[in-house]
Amino acid sequence: MKYEDLGFARIDHDRKKRRGFPEVVLCEGKTDEQAVKIIEALAKENDNILASRANSDLYKLAKKSIPELRYNELARMIILEKKSLPRVGSMLVLSAGTSDIPVVEEVVETASIMGNNVESINDVGVAGLHRLLDNMDYLKKAKVIVVVAGMDGALPSVVAGLVDKPVIAVPTSIGYGASFNGLAPLLTMLNSCSAGVGVVNIDNGFGAAYLASLINKIGE
Amino acid sequence: MKYEDLGFARIDHDRKKRRGFPEVVLCEGKTDEQAVKIIEALAKENDNILASRANSDLYKLAKKSIPELRYNELARMIILEKKSLPRVGSMLVLSAGTSDIPVVEEVVETASIMGNNVESINDVGVAGLHRLLDNMDYLKKAKVIVVVAGMDGALPSVVAGLVDKPVIAVPTSIGYGASFNGLAPLLTMLNSCSAGVGVVNIDNGFGAAYLASLINKIGE
Amino acid sequence: MKYEDLGFARIDHDRKKRRGFPEVVLCEGKTDEQAVKIIEALAKENDNILASRANSDLYKLAKKSIPELRYNELARMIILEKKSLPRVGSMLVLSAGTSDIPVVEEVVETASIMGNNVESINDVGVAGLHRLLDNMDYLKKAKVIVVVAGMDGALPSVVAGLVDKPVIAVPTSIGYGASFNGLAPLLTMLNSCSAGVGVVNIDNGFGAAYLASLINKIGE
Amino acid sequence: MKYEDLGFARIDHDRKKRRGFPEVVLCEGKTDEQAVKIIEALAKENDNILASRANSDLYKLAKKSIPELRYNELARMIILEKKSLPRVGSMLVLSAGTSDIPVVEEVVETASIMGNNVESINDVGVAGLHRLLDNMDYLKKAKVIVVVAGMDGALPSVVAGLVDKPVIAVPTSIGYGASFNGLAPLLTMLNSCSAGVGVVNIDNGFGAAYLASLINKIGE
Amino acid sequence: MKYEDLGFARIDHDRKKRRGFPEVVLCEGKTDEQAVKIIEALAKENDNILASRANSDLYKLAKKSIPELRYNELARMIILEKKSLPRVGSMLVLSAGTSDIPVVEEVVETASIMGNNVESINDVGVAGLHRLLDNMDYLKKAKVIVVVAGMDGALPSVVAGLVDKPVIAVPTSIGYGASFNGLAPLLTMLNSCSAGVGVVNIDNGFGAAYLASLINKIGE
Amino acid sequence: MKYEDLGFARIDHDRKKRRGFPEVVLCEGKTDEQAVKIIEALAKENDNILASRANSDLYKLAKKSIPELRYNELARMIILEKKSLPRVGSMLVLSAGTSDIPVVEEVVETASIMGNNVESINDVGVAGLHRLLDNMDYLKKAKVIVVVAGMDGALPSVVAGLVDKPVIAVPTSIGYGASFNGLAPLLTMLNSCSAGVGVVNIDNGFGAAYLASLINKIGE
Amino acid sequence: MKYEDLGFARIDHDRKKRRGFPEVVLCEGKTDEQAVKIIEALAKENDNILASRANSDLYKLAKKSIPELRYNELARMIILEKKSLPRVGSMLVLSAGTSDIPVVEEVVETASIMGNNVESINDVGVAGLHRLLDNMDYLKKAKVIVVVAGMDGALPSVVAGLVDKPVIAVPTSIGYGASFNGLAPLLTMLNSCSAGVGVVNIDNGFGAAYLASLINKIGE
Amino acid sequence: MKYEDLGFARIDHDRKKRRGFPEVVLCEGKTDEQAVKIIEALAKENDNILASRANSDLYKLAKKSIPELRYNELARMIILEKKSLPRVGSMLVLSAGTSDIPVVEEVVETASIMGNNVESINDVGVAGLHRLLDNMDYLKKAKVIVVVAGMDGALPSVVAGLVDKPVIAVPTSIGYGASFNGLAPLLTMLNSCSAGVGVVNIDNGFGAAYLASLINKIGE
């Protein structure tokens, strides 16, 4: 199996073949120089690449050598999409509140470049149930639903109780005090009284979209 | 102010005057002998008394000297009610699941002896929202609502979003794994995205009823 | 039921009817642009609005389009109060120390705009009991008491032991070391040996005032 | 929507229509009498039912009124399967060690009665990688993979790195000391360096199977 | 320096000289045979010895070879006191509730055999402040005060605010739910808003008495 | 009892009489204006005052109205000492490492102004035992010993094993990773295998000195 | 690579070649039937085998088919040693207290069967330093030292400060209260102020011995 | 035994003789002045010294008086190496990802100056197993292996399962959300299902190298 050794990184060029999409770069924790070199190495071998948790300085640096790069500031993502994959299936992203939107954006960008039809409905938290119930049509036509929520993290339980499709729950670090940086909604989601919920790491929009994409592409 | 010194306990006979109801005995952690003596001392001065977290052995022992005692096994409560207080106001108790019923029973017994009209509706958790929404009439006519829930603890957020009255939330230790003995629903409830929720200790049905009673009696 | 879809937010205009006060904006976690647009949308439909955890930059931005806005820097709140509600009932706010005052201010602003008579007494922590006992008259005449305390969080237990009215306890993140950002007083309050205490999230002055207001308005 | 009110429980008979399978009974926390009555109520309306975390005493009691019941002791499940659903798709269950088998059994029973083809391969933990790599053919032909692991919980990361299909990870409470009853593998799985992993509660074989079943049935 | 090697234990016979009292045996975690042999070895060299967290079976076994032993069941302590030390100074032990008495007994036994005048006042928790304030004379005449409390653990803060002498605080595991086996009162006591409080381990009556004895003997 | 109400603070002027030293100002969490006003109010009634966790800006502000103020930058303390109390007794402060010195300084400043003879010996942690054992003479002549340590927090156990006097242990937040901001040494100290150790909050040099001062003054 | 598939277990017969010793059976969490079958399968292929965390019932059951088995009750280990490996090198095991001996026994049994010279010195905790310092000769002649300690877990820091050889630290669950089942000594050891310490899981005597054996055999 | 007293520090000049390498300076938590004086004191007595967690300002300051100093920015280490020790043995350092490189650098610098042959292979985490398996030759020829990993921390379990040599595991704080600053990989490593793993503190590259050096030098 093939990989490229940069010394500080070992680019797993086999991953696209093995897992269906090239390695995604988690920029946090890497120096800007390291991140840019990894992006360049990936760009040489792939049409579409994605880098997450990237700040705008890194984007500007990377854009110098790869002008086609695009940046989504809310999602903190750098995107190269030279040959769009056809969008298939039907993924729905729900958020409990406006503050969860950066994570929603990370889900949408990831799902899009990986070739999924994706729609998002924001601010439908359980404090005003009618906002959710008004959108039952969207819930019914989706193949897979990603639910993003902080604070009490109650939305995935309610959503999973209404539908017969997989729900991927993303706790967010939105909130304060006894939210303990997302621990509260994480525990809520793991204890969901409705079955059919899979949970990913706090603020991990990328991971939720990746899993939802694997599900959404079944049968397409 | 008046109290009675038993050596191992100082019965706060002033409490009824100061707080409206005699001291309630938390039996857990006391020897059976201690608990019985405290119950006897209270029974000498009061018509109505309540002992919580009592097992049936203790009940049998106490009943020997005070035959009027009654025992609610699910609630693990010993009750003496020689002169019932008139029931006033309107307290509603909701539970998310059948397993929460022991705590519900503790709420109902406490609320009753303290002189509140109280009704309970069980098993209306958010996994099947229609079970709750079907009971909106009950929610609307209550002065105060106690919500008992384990696992994801999502019910109080949903309830508080539907009404304009105080909601007292009781997390229960029902569940397993990442419920961490009730930590999960406790955090959920403290982070409720709906305002108007006050939280008490895990499994503390007595405390919830006491607070709800103080609220329910306002204006009566 | 009515709401307004801004894309990033779904303004729950039905909330005033359903819950008695319009949606309150939690600014933290939202971009300034989002927060201002939500404030503007609410201001079009309501006379009185409240935005919490807002910094002064956001206030200045919002004031450009809504000059009637007022800012309470300690409470970090933006307030619009075009038609004051009549002040009713009697809410008392106690704080254990001077450092708890920002949370006290959040309680007072929220309670005021929601139409409650509210008074605060600061720095009456249990290290000097006489400061509290000197104010028994205030405690006795209140319908509901909000107690704000950090560090050991012992004040609500003491207060609830003295009165026969609901006590809403707010732990604060004041303190250091084993306070663990408010975890210590939170646990203290949940374990209060005096019944009649409902607890809200750490630093959640708004939530405490909202719940206390629901209680204070009973019978008015 | 339809449900049956037993007083202590509200049987959600609508759930089969809404979610594809009747309500599953979590027996833990219910009295035997409650559990049996719920099982009876479900059995009147459904051909296939499932009760989890049931001990053998409860099974014997329930079998008196419903002789067709079957009991899987390792899985602690009571099963009624009068009209088997056709088995479709391809679900694979992997366990890290022999001690994880009770959870594996819960997955297999749940998946079977819900109509899934399911196979399990046990004891393929990362301490002896070749045991896993020898089974790559099974991994490749599965539509969805459930991975059950305690202690270090490392197996899902390794599995997800090898395939392009959804991985549902179940941490178990197997282990001791710093496993903290399953907290360690739970955190490991949430932090998986391979994307495509959804996590459920500790020891929640039922929940993993339910989610995997929803995925496995897509396109069938 | 002198010690005796039993293979499984190294009796620190020098300790009495170095620290003023012979080694105290913590029985928990030792086999009965080990504990008895250690007690015997100590009894050969000392007039007064103390063994903590001992059950009655161990006591009966040890009494066979050392008939002078005495057992305090509540304190779970085995005591040998052949030559009583003169009681000096003035140590006061306060407990918040009846359930804390086993720890109080451990304090009293330890303090007594180490030669301290010691008195205890039970059940003076902050839910009824007058019970404490009525005993101000005892607080004033003590040289050192040990305060034992579970649940909210608020009593040491209140006591230390009233006096100018050292307060040793012992959190107890009494309580339930968010007490988390004594974590709540432990944190409360560490965050005491009154200075002058030193904290020992949860339920560690022995340790509190040992420290209080060192203090109480100063100047005697 | 006497106190002065500043609105935002209630100066407990009775404290000096009741507890032997005027209220000490914890500046953290107060605005500079509040802190200065409290310092001024105290300075009007007392010769000696102390303010902790103060930054140099606050010091400069306060010095404008009270020129006699002194500032200890390492200890972050503002000191007014117009009439030095006579230094009595013998307090010893030990630190495990150089990084613990800010806390040592807080101990020394507090102990000095409260009228104690105090000496400190730094950097005698258990990684080089001989550094401690070389100072046995100092340990032997002290009446009370304060031990300051971060990281493993092992020093108090070793010290208490060597002497027959009270040891006050102060965990510090020095360290990283699994120190969890001082949680590790805090737990170590609470579990000390040597009796005679009282623990205060993480980094709480003031509290340790206050308690040690109460002890040190016994018999003087 | 070779393994044997028992259905519920996959015996890694390659492990002896790959890692130097056959798979060790962790009995906890396995049914007795499973554990016996695994022991039998290993016994067919190996002269020496080891099973940990085994109770005496399991031992009796296994002994029926393999009469050469031996049982160490304190260590809870089943041992088969048909061809003893030559004992090489020099491993020293130190324990802080008598209660740590079960873990010491697990270390000694494991180290012995794996072919190491191993000696243990018990009850040399830091509460009586001279007990440790008296044994410096043993410390100096060892190649590797295993240190077993509960409660404050301070011993490894002290030992590592005295020698220039690897120290393997094993926290034990001995203790109570704020030991939190071994969390306290675990954190202490991870934060050791002396370098040269590697930590294993709480109570994991087997793991410590395995690692120490790998080290002890270097150069033999 | 010899040490030098600087007042704020006690330089343990005996350590080189006792433990084989002079004291290493942990700069974090010390003032720049303190750190420089300690470095100067060590440089007077030793040819080779090491200071960890040092920022570049401190380096510049120290270089003024000791021009031979070198700085490794990634490792945050200041190095003086006037007489290189001969490099012996064979230490291998593996990292799971690029973000772990700062810790790898700390390992490599420490190991080098202490006289070890050391090689590192980066970015061989379990998401792409072939990257690790391709380097089996390096694993086989090493005497000791240090494994650095954040997030799921799964790499040490996999590595230890492949070899028969000691593995020192270093969890890193790389990651987000439920990594809880390195708690997740720390727990994973302590629960490794492969024996032969010793764990050090989060991000403690120095400690890992120190321990690995002690092992690597055995027999050299």
List low-pLDDT spans of chain A.
none
Number of strand elements of chain A: 11
Main sheet of chain A: which strands, in order across?
Answer: 8-7-9-10-11
Topology order of chain A in helix (H) and strand (E) letters: EEHEHEHEEEHEHHEHEHEH
Mean pLDDT of chain A: 95
The helix count of chain A comes to 9
- Output the structural class of chain A: alpha/beta
Estimated radius of gyration of chain A:
18 Å
Helices, strands, pairings?
Eight copies of one chain form a homooctamer.
Chain A: E1 4-5, E2 10-11, H1 15-19, E3 25-26, H2 32-45, E4 48-52, H3 56-65, E5 70-72, E6 77-81, E7 88-95, H4 101-113, E8 116-121, H5 129-133, H6 136-141, E9 144-149, H7 155-160, E10 167-171, H8 183-190, E11 197-199, H9 205-216
Parallel strand pairs in A: 3-4, 7-8, 7-9, 9-10, 10-11
Antiparallel strand pairs in A: 1-2, 4-6, 5-6
Helix pairs in contact in A: 2-3, 4-9
Structure description:
Eight copies of one chain form a homooctamer. The mean pLDDT of chain A is 95. Chain A is 36% helix and 21% strand. The first copy, chain A, folds into two domains: 3-81, no CATH class; 88-216, Rossmann fold. Chain A has helices spanning 15-19, 32-45, 56-65, 101-113, 129-133, 136-141, 155-160, 183-190, 205-216; strands spanning 4-5, 10-11, 25-26, 48-52, 70-72, 77-81, 88-95, 116-121, 144-149, 167-171, 197-199. With 220 residues, chain A is an alpha/beta fold. The relative contact order of chain A is 0.13. In chain A, helix 8 (183-190) links the parallel strand 10 (167-171) and strand 11. The first copy, chain A, has a five-stranded parallel β-sheet. In chain A, strands 3-4-6-5 form a four-stranded mixed β-sheet, sandwiched between helices. In chain A, strands 1-2 form a two-stranded antiparallel sheet. Chain A is built from nine helices and eleven strands. Chain A binds chain B through residues 96-97, 125-129, 151-154, 157-158, 160-162, 175, 177-180, 183-185, 187-194, and chain B through 96-97, 125-129, 151-154, 157-158, 160-162, 175, 177-180, 183-185, 187-194.
